[in-house]
Prior knowledge:
Elements: E1 5-8, H1 14-31, H2 38-41, H3 44-53, E2 55-62, E3 82-83, H4 86-90, E4 98-109, E5 112-120, H5 129-141, E6 147-153, H6 157-165, E7 169-175, E8 181-188
Parallel strand pairs: 5-6
Antiparallel strand pairs: 1-2, 2-4, 3-4, 4-5, 6-8, 7-8
Amino acid sequence: MTEPIITKAVKEDLPLILDIQRKAFLEVARAFHLKSMPQIEQTLKSLTAEFKNCTILKASLANISEIKHENAPIDKSVNLKKSKSLDSRLRGNDLDDVTIVGSVRAYNHDDTCYINRLVVLPEYQNRGIGKALMNEIEKQFKTIVKRYELFTGSRDTRNQYLYNQLGYKPFKTEYLNSEITFVFMEKSAQ
């Protein structure tokens, strides 16, 4: 697979990022038999408000229709938006189409970078895209924070494994309701 191109999202990317978020968290909801999740119900209006206060990165793949996947064929029912935009110009080739397949957002407060909503389209998961997004979001804040913090569901061992691989360690749990308990994880920025 080609390496993902990680860049800052622009306002025009938000509808697609929201769609990717819903598809990614719908898979989580199904896996854990949840009726719904705030990540699925988020509106474009609230994401646009977040955009003003957060750093939102996107992961794009070039020429996605030509990429051959070993594990799974491309799901033609997924609405992937191709765009000739900032991503192409960064690579110095305006002829290449790129498709957004993932995103992450973060903000800083009191020496901490709070990372959330790491999302990758389900058919592109387990290919290093989430790890690339995490590495880049950490770089964005490395010189202005002392630590990174995120949370995930206590039953989501796949996410916990990824975050452990990236150096994050659990430091508290928080009970939300009978279905959801969060595990908060942290990592030093030094």
